[in-house]
Fold this sequence. Notes:
The protein is mainly β. The chain has one helix spanning 24-38, and strands at residues 55-59, 63-69, 78-83, 86-93, 115-122, 133-137, 140-146.
Amino acid sequence: xxxxxxxxxxxxxxxxxxxxxxxxxxxxxxxxxxxxxxxxxxxxxxxxxxxxxxxxxxxxxxxxxxxxxxxxxxxxxxxxxxxxxxxxxxxxxxxxxxxxxxxxxxxxxxxxxxxxxxxxxxxxxxxxxxxxxxxxxxxxxxxxxxxxxxxxxxxxxxxxxx
Length: 162
């Protein structure tokens, strides 16, 4: 297997390109800048090395539903809290522990991201935390939040001051 095929972007300086003219060094410098920029980008993956779950927020007349993609995580790896109308999704994606029986591995490409993450979302006021439900299945966290009852407008009669 050719390991160069696994690397998304490789250096083009293989000696076959001619550096003709006065613009050769400028061309090399621009190529280097683009290679530095694209080094962390591989087929749409983010350039940062942070765990940040993708979320969808939808709502109906009666509820707000938040879904978060958490591939490779289980229920025990995720905490969901609601405090002062701030919903926090927190978790940790850990590196798989290698057993002593495994032979030494030479990593050629590593694009997976590990570490602690959290997302904070501001919710409407008057949410009752005891009504919030969270479920997780196949790496997708689903949080269902019933909307609070709307307060009715009440007309207040203005009276003469005594």
